[in-house]
Amino acid sequence: MITGILHATFLTTDLAKSRTFYEGILGLRPDPNRPSMSYDGVWYDVADKQQIHLMLLPNPEAGLQRPAHGGRDRHVALAVSGIAQLIARLDQAGIAYTLSQSGRRALFCRDPDGNALEFIGDV
Predict the structure, then answer these.
(1) Are 112 and 97 in contact (CB under 8 A)?
(2) Which pLDDT tens digit goes with each residue over 48-78?
(3) Which end of the chain, N or C, is surrounded by fewer C-beta atoms within 10 Å?
(4) CA angle 112, 117, 120 (to 5 degrees)
C-alpha cells in the first residue's frame, strides 16, 4: 500500500542555524509554496514530491545522549550525487561525520540540533 515517503520532519530550536546547515552546506532551497503554520519552519524540496520539513519547536529530548555514530540512531537516508563534494563541504564547515561501517559509499552526520542524517553516494 505505501508508495513512497513524502517528507521527513526535524525539530529545530534555532531555525537560522539550521537553515545555514540545510541551505549553505547541503544546498537545499526553501519551497515558497508551503502554507504557514502555527509555528515557524521551512520546507525543502528534495526530489519529486519529497521534502524535508524543519519545525521551530522545543526539543522534547533535550539533553538525551545520542550515539556517536548516526547509523546507530534513528535517521533518514538521503541519496546524493558527488559524495566527495559533500565531504569537502562538511570538512570546510568543521562538521563531524562518520563513514558507513558497512563499507558503502555513505556517511552520517548530525544537523545543528543533533538529528542524524545519512548520505548515500551515487545511488
Answers:
(1) no
(2) 889 999 999 988 887 888 888 888 898 999 9
(3) N
(4) 140
Instruction: Write b or e for each residue in 30-40: b if 16 or more Cβ atoms lie within 10 A of its Cβ, otherwise e.
Output: eeeeeeeeeee
CA angle 34, 26, 61 (to 5 degrees): 75
C-alpha to C-alpha distance for 16 and 37, rounded to whole angstroms: 17
Give the three-class secondary structure for 19.
helix
Assign a CATH topology to domain 7-59+68-121.
2,3-Dihydroxybiphenyl 1,2-Dioxygenase; domain 1 (3.10.180)
Domain boundaries, the chain: 7-59+68-121
